[in-house]
Design brief:
Chain A is an alpha+beta fold. Chain A has three helices and five strands. With about 575 residues, chain B is α/β, with parallel strands linked by helices. In chain B, helix 1 packs across helix 2 and helix 11 packs across helix 12. The chains are: A alpha+beta (about 110), B alpha/beta (about 575).
Chain lengths: ~110, ~575
């Protein structure tokens, strides 16, 4: 019975893999995020150190928005991995007061 | 003998007047000046008909009436038979009129109220655009800058900036309005003298995933953040838009018939927005602006090819308002008003909300356009608390089809609408403004590049509603510099004109994910009403003034009276130069 269930789950996994294979490979290899430090700093080294420690990954500094808000680049492999990183950053509220993706704004012609 | 007495009284009054006027330099600000028109009864014993001159007669009659009522009054000019202006201090005009009306010698006493003439701009495009040339599809709009003039039964949404301009500024210092946009063409002759240096926040190219590329194809200026806010053009060629490996893939409109992304010419969007707010006015060329001589435009470049990133826009907002942005020199001319004619979908994020809240706390007004998604939810940052979000209305005052809506919006303003839907017919109600003739790259003014949009190269969009509000906010600050952002928002909303209701047109409803075209605006979808610049600026001038009446009587020759006399003296000269506009 157990073997049957295991076999069925393997089959489902195989089906899922097959389905995934039909989809485009995830192209997300990183993301630009906006972080608000709990303790504002104008020093990019401090920003990257704090964000890097929270994310557990190397961080590349992009630009300042103010002394509290900065944009940084985080490498992640696929949407799920990027979401995990965002959750890690949000969890470190002692150092990171807020975090969100850097999105594009447009002038939109009617 | 009687004549000599009158002369003496007149001379005394004049010398007193002169000495008091001189002493009034030290009078405290805010002293009340009562000004009334008084008509004596024909049989009044207070009349001094034998005086040598009209001036003597008015002075003597004022003295006589002052002696009767027990407080000082000064004479103004004659108005008609037995009728003249009189001044007093320490009370309102209404209180003085009421007091004098009780005298048996007085036929009537009424406040001498100010009437104003509308100060139409002399700029040639204000009244009408160039003649429409149907053959080469140029010229117009026939209505010129209809959106700045007084509303009519046919053009209900016009903002009446013309009457707002007649409210005197409290200070000669211009109000700085930051335009966070694509930059500006600094050589446009209607803008050149009105621009501050600004800043360019557009950095190095990066992918949608945030990877820096070491190139500057987006900004087209060869470097990252820099002190030059010039608009280099945001046009995207068809080849760029369809290059799946390029930076600008899918940045333009998709053409379902060809399966390709379309070419998109440069918008010169920042130049267009800047013209509405601050184009030089009464300079004999081009167009008028809402802010006229009372504003300076601070261009902050945050958009370029394919738009701009939140990180650059928020950095630009902070810099414009005088907040330190690490790595960027501080702004030497912080703005009091920020205009953001840009947006993106989604609710207001923490980054925008915290920035707007911090800027509001610094006294900075933030104005943003609703978006052009045809009745979908207002975009970020127009949907942020503390932002004055602006919906777009047609010339008749109903929602223009493309405008987005939502309960977060504060007010509505003209956005431009064409009525004619055929491309070969002129657009009837566009928002005429400054632009550049370049398709992708700018064309210099020397080569004829500085142009104005017209009935065929029409400017429409909520992007152009927001600067009408931002310019009005600047006018409000010019008459009352200490207004808070919350006061400005409240006054704009409370003075807005009610939306018209057209039978047979549906009311706009809350955004539900479906497109919602032309509809009757409601206060829960398009803001409190249609922008009324005149009413807003006049109301702003009275904010915190305590209603203009100090109450009480006052018979002493106090400092208030001195100030009133000084004002009267100044006003006599000023009035002569302004053809009927009365004194403060």
């Amino acid at each position: 019975m157990l073997a049957l269930a295991r076999s069925a789950s393997l089959c489902l996994a195989a089906l899922a893999l097959a389905a995934c294979a039909a989809e485009p490979l995830p192209s997300v290899t990183g993301m630009s995020v906006l972080v608000k430090l709990a303790q504002p700093s104008a020093d990019p080294a401090i920003v990257t150190a704090q964000v890097g420690a929270a994310a557990g990954r190397p961080v590349r500094y992009l630009a300042a928005m103010s002394e509290a808000w900065h944009s940084v680049y985080l490498r992640c492999e696929g949407a799920a991995d990027c979401d995990v990183l965002l959750q890690r950053l949000r969890a470190d509220s002692a150092h990171i007061a807020a975090v969100q993706r850097d999105e594009r704004k447009r002038i939109v012609s009617p | 003998m009687k004549s000599n007495v009158s002369r003496l009284a007149g001379a005394l009054a004049l010398s007193l007047f002169a000495s008091l006027a001189a002493a009034a330099v030290d009078a405290p600000a805010g002293a009340q000046s009562a000004r009334v028109i008084v008509k004596f009864k024909a049989d009044s014993g207070l009349l001094r008909k034998q005086a040598a001159s009209a001036g003597d007669r008015h002075a003597a009659q004022a003295q006589a009436l002052a002696a009767r009522v027990g407080f000082a009054m000064a004479a103004g000019r004659g108005v008609g038979e037995n009728t003249q202006v009189m001044f007093a201090s320490g009370m309102s005009s209404a209180a003085l009129a009421e007091r004098l009306s009780k005298e048996k010698d007085i036929e009537y006493a009424v406040p001498d109220r100010r009437k104003t003439r509308a100060v139409a701009a002399s700029d040639p495009l204000y009244a009408a655009g160039p003649a429409v040339n149907q053959a080469n599809l140029s010229g117009g709009p026939v209505a010129g800058q209809w959106y700045l003039r007084a509303p009519t039964s046919a053009v209900r949404s016009a903002i009446n900036a013309e009457a707002a301009w007649d409210v005197p500024a409290a200070t000669a210092t211009p109000v700085v309005v930051a335009v966070l946009d694509t930059g500006v063409r600094k050589d446009h002759p209607d803008l050149a003298g009105k621009l501050l240096d600004g800043y360019d926040m557009v950095g190095e190219d990066k992918t949608d995933q945030g990877q820096l590329l070491g190139t500057f194809l987006t900004s087209k200026d060869g470097d990252g953040r820099d002190a030059d806010a010039s608009d280099m053009g945001d046009g995207i060629t068809a080849a760029e838009a369809n290059d799946s490996a390029g930076l600008f893939y899918q940045c333009t409109t998709f053409d379902s018939t060809t399966g390709k992304y379309l070419e998109e010419l440069s918008s010169w969007h920042g130049t267009q927005v800047s013209g509405i707010i601050g184009a030089a006015t009464d300079n004999g060329i081009g167009m008028a602006s809402v802010g006229r001589e009372r504003v300076r435009v601070l261009p902050v470049r945050v958009l370029a090819k394919c738009g701009g990133w939140d990180s650059d826009i928020i950095a630009g907002m902070n810099w414009a308002a005088g907040v330190t942005v690490p790595g960027v020199p501080d702004n030497p001319a912080p703005a009091k008003v920020l205009n953001l004619s840009l947006g993106g979908t989604g609710s207001c994020s923490a980054a925008y909300q915290s920035t707007v809240s911090a800027l509001n706390a610094r006294g900075v007004v933030v104005v943003a356009s609703a978006g052009n998604g045809s009745g979908h939810a207002a975009s970020e940052p127009a949907n942020c608390a503390g932002v004055i979000g602006v919906a777009g209305v047609r010339h008749e005052g109903d929602k223009v089809g493309y405008s987005d809506i939502g309960p977060e919006l504060s007010i509505a303003a003209p956005a431009g609408n064409c009525v004619n839907t055929s491309g070969s017919l002129p657009c009837l109600y566009p928002i005429l403004t400054t632009a550049n003739s370049g398709d992708f790259n700018p064309v210099s003014n020397a080569n004829g590049g500085s142009i104005y949009t017209d009935a065929y190269n029409a400017t429409i969009g909520t992007s152009f509603s927001a600067p009408l509000v931002a310019g009005t906010a600047a006018l409000m600050l010019s008459v009352k510099p200490d207004l808070t952002p919350a006061q400005i928002r409240q006054v704009l909303m409370s003075t807005a004109r009610a939306f018209p209701v057209y039978i047979g047109t549906a009311d706009c409803h809350a955004p539900d994910g479906n497109a919602q075209s032309q509809c009757n605006c409601t206060t829960s979808t398009c803001g409190a009403g249609m922008l009324d610049a005149s009413a807003a600026v006049r109301a702003a001038a009275n904010v915190g003034s305590g209603g203009g009446s100090s109450g009480g009587g006052g018979g002493a020759l106090g400092a208030g009276w001195l100030a009133a006399l000084a004002l009267a003296v100044a006003a006599l000269g000023w009035r002569r130069g302004r053809q009927g506009t009365e004194a403060p």
